[in-house]
Sequence to fold (167 residues):
Amino acid sequence: MPLNKSLKTTLLTLTWLPVLYSFTSHVYQPYQIKGSSMTPTFNPGTSTTAKDIVLVQKFNIKSKPDSIAKGDIIMFRSPLDPDKLLTKRVIGVNGDRVYPKSPRYPKSEVKIPRNHLWVEGDNSFHSIDSNEFGPISKGLVVGKVVYIIWPASRWGQDLRGGLGDDI
Fold:
C-alpha cells in the first residue's frame, strides 16, 4: 500500500531533524544578543527594541590553539552563573598582560594564565566582564560570533568594530 504524499514529506522531514540538531549543536548556531554590554557592535539602536541575531561558530573552537584571538567576539558561560551565556570581546589571551579598567579589581596588572582569556564588553559602563570576575577559562567558551544574520540591514558589518589589530 503506497504512502500518500503528505506522509512521505513528513517522514522525510523527520529524518533531517537529527542532522539539524547535530549541526546547531556542534557546527553553527544562531543566537539572539540581549542587553547593551556590546553596544554599538550589537543592538546599536536605542529607539528600537529589536535585538541582533548572530551566527556562532562552534566547531574547532576548543581544539585549535589559535582559534580565538584578540579582537574576536565570543559567547561563553558566565563564571558567576553557568546557566547564563555572555557575549564579550577578547582583549587578552594566555601570556598577555592586561590592565583592568575597574578600580574594584584587586590587581592593577594581570598576566593571563594558560588556557584563559580576558574579555570585556564594548560598552564598559554596562558590562559585567573580566574586570569583575577576572580571566575566564577557555573551557567556558561556547563559540565565536562570526556574522550578524538579523537585522538584514546589518549583514556584513565588521565585528572587529574598527579595532584592527591594536587591541
Summary: The chain has a mean pLDDT of 85. The longest strand covers residues 141-150. The CA atoms of residues 105 and 132 lie 6 Å apart. The chain has one domain: 30-154.
